[in-house]
Amino acid sequence: MKETGVIKFNCNWIKAQPISPDLLIALNVWRTRMHKLGFIGVNNEEIGYGNMSIRLSGNQFIITGSATGKIKVLSNKHYTKVVNYDLDKNSLTAEGPILASSESLTHAVIYECDKKVNAIIHIHNTKLWNQLMNKVPTTNKDVEYGTPAMAMEMKRLFNETDLSKQKILVMAGHQDGIISFGKDLNEAGNQLLKLV
After folding, report:
1. How far is CA 191 from the centre of its chain?
2. Which SS3 state, helix, strand or coil, does residue 15 take?
3. Whole-structure pTM value
4. Which of 7, 71, 93, 167 could join 12 in a cystine, given CB atoms 3.0 to 4.6 angstroms apart?
């Protein structure tokens, strides 16, 4: 199994005050639900998996912080705001009390590709991953998570498949990794719940 939860991009982290809890209400409700289901958590090596985000404006978004999978219920200290990214330089700028999730570049490109997307949920589930492999838009199995190549896979899937309609994809090169998205967290989350 490939490593999980390790940041592979250059992160320009600007330490800042925690995000207002008012912006995180729905995010915390859905994140807690996903954690209870085991879709977000830690593996046997104590490495975290799974993350979630919501769009703020333009391509800026709030995302769960790195290494938060082990925490059952998050507070505003566990989220950060992505304010900018550059795929060519494999870099990302985040402001907040914690480093951005290792999947932040992937989230950024999904928001860039579909302006109707306002929420993204990345989970891990072996049964669902096997069930959906190559039945929904699926990334190349040689592409690892958290890399510019994975972000480019998002662009490819939006261009070559009906991903914008299905709103769910399998990360073939990221063991058990699945991403759903939607106009809000309810749509993104229910997309997963109806499959399990």
Report:
1. 15
2. strand
3. 0.94
4. 93
List strand residue ranges (DSSP E) for the chain, in order: 10-15, 41-42, 48-49, 51-57, 60-64, 79-86, 91-96, 119-124, 168-171, 177-182
The third-level CATH classification (topology) of the domain covering 10-193 is: L-fuculose-1-phosphate Aldolase (3.40.225)
99/29 Cα distance (integer angstroms): 21
Question: Which pLDDT belongs to residue 1?
Answer: 32
Q: Do the beta carbons of residue 23 and residue 80 sit within 8 Å?
A: no
> Could you tell me the residue ranges of all domains in the chain?
10-193
Collapsing DSSP states into helix, strand and coil, what is residue 164?
Answer: helix
Residue whose token pair is 């090169």: 173
Q: How confident is the model at residue 46 (pLDDT cuts 50, 70, 90)?
A: confident
Tell me how many degrees the CA angle 79-62-154 measures, rounded to the nearest 5: 120
**Residue ranges in the chain assigned as alpha helix (H):** 25-36, 104-113, 126-132, 148-160, 163-166, 185-193
For residue 16, give the 3-state DSSP assignment.
Answer: coil
User: Cα 106 vs. chain centroid, distance in angstroms?
Assistant: 7
Please count the CA atoms within 13 angstroms of the CA of 80 that sit on its side-chain side.
Answer: 27
For residues 168 and 51, give the distance between their C-alpha atoms in angstroms, rounded to a whole number.
15
